[in-house]
Design a protein that fits this description.
10-stranded antiparallel sheet; 9 helices; disordered N terminus; Catalase_sf; Catalase core domain-containing protein; heme binding
């Protein structure tokens, strides 16, 4: 009898973790839960981001972004939608199989602190795709409501440790208070009940950035569905570095230097993928600190992103990316509207950060519409 019970339990477990089919995917309508006082909390987070920007200015005499502060490389390439993309995945950016778009990207260290590359920390990648057609979340800088760019932000951590807005405020207040005292910050974080989650990003292996899988972390509309995105490195040269960590005695600029050396003779290739939510319990939208299981939400290949060999850290590119332009997941199509509290926070906080940077550096920060704007 026990053997029968064990078999039944094993079958039930397998059934509950099987991949969900498109007909089971969650509708993107009414998946968000906006709580009272959210606007005020978002404004508070924006103010705390300004505080961290001021700390960096005091140390470096330059107004930087609020997060993803330290640039590592800047690249230009293209995104090609799969020729045989299934019809149920043909939405928004991915509406036309086989179509190719110009794209640019920025690799960066994710934290608000300017950390040495030999220190463990999350790494990020900002992606801007050009000449994307479709109804926009807001008009493009030239006034068009049907043509512009689509921005994505990625991180090599699959989750955001900031569970909700209240948690974000608490953590940002600690980061601001102990901005110049990392040891004290770690001690304060260690007192929290969610300390394992807060320490998770710093526990990531210090892998080669060019070989890192990147994640959108938060959820987005995907036409009628709810999805998260990912970039999977696929070239042979990238594959050869997967699973490897940088040397223990690496320089403080190791990632910048390695990316520059790598791209001097080799290119990169990524598969842009999406996984789809089928229920809010297993695949929450409001809480981006929960990783969606690949057992129930497997990845679906959408497009190939490729960057050829190139100079990745010229002064012209560095100044343009750091001082002249902005990225935001809200600069894009209505069919890829950002979802969840972390994304609603980004909408306002990124605008505040961009304005702070523009005023402080006396340099207009704009949203480019042509890939040719990016210097060589």
């Amino acid at each position: 009898m026990q053997a029968i019970n064990d078999t039944v339990q094993a079958v039930q477990e397998k059934l509950t973790t099987k991949p969900r089919e498109p007909e089971d995917w969650l509708s993107s309508e009414a998946v968000e839960e906006i709580k009272p006082g959210e606007d005020e909390k978002i404004l508070r987070v924006g103010e705390l981001v300004h505080d961290m920007q001021r700390h960096n200015f005091d140390a470096h005499q330059h107004k930087s972004r609020g997060t993803h502060v330290k640039s590592l490389a800047f690249v230009k390439g293209e995104l090609k939608i799969k020729q045989d993309l299934p019809s149920h995945l043909q939405h928004g950016l991915f509406s036309t199989p086989g179509k190719t778009y110009a794209a640019i990207g920025r690799y960066a260290n994710e934290p608000s602190f300017i950390l040495p590359d030999n220190q463990k920390a999350p790494r990020g990648f900002g992606l801007k795709i050009f000449d994307v057609e479709g109804k926009r979340l807001s008009p493009a800088p030239d006034g068009s409501e049907t043509r512009g760019t689509q921005d994505f932000l990625f991180n090599n951590a699959p989750i955001v440790e900031l569970t909700d807005l209240d948690t974000t405020i608490e953590i940002f207040e600690l980061r601001t208070k102990y901005f110049d005292s990392p040891t004290k910050l770690q001690l304060e974080l260690a007192k929290r009940s969610d300390r394992l989650k807060q320490f998770a990003p710093a526990m990531l292996p210090n892998e080669y950035v060019v070989a890192a899988t990147m994640f959108s972390q938060s959820a987005f509309k995907f036409g009628p569905y709810v999805a998260k995105f990912s970039l999977l490195p696929t070239s042979d040269d990238q594959e050869s570095l997967k699973g490897s960590t940088i040397p223990n005695d690496a320089d403080t600029t190791f990632h910048r230097d390695h990316l520059r050396s790598y791209y001097s003779s080799k290119g990169t290739t990524y598969v842009l993928r999406a996984q789809f939510a089928s229920d809010l319990k297993s695949h929450p939208v409001e809480d981006a600190s929960v990783e969606w299981s690949q057992l129930t939400a497997p990845w679906h290949d959408l497009a190939t992103l490729s960057f050829p060999a190139q100079e990745t850290f010229s002064d012209a590119r560095r100044v343009w990316w750091e001082d002249r332009i902005g990225l935001s997941p809200w600069d894009g199509l209505a069919e890829h509207r950002p979802l969840g509290s972390i994304n609603r926070l980004r909408h306002k906080a990124y605008e505040m950060s961009r304005a702070f940077r523009s005023k402080g550096n006396q340099m207009e920060v704009y949203l480019p519409l042509k890939p040719g704007d990016m210097p060589e």
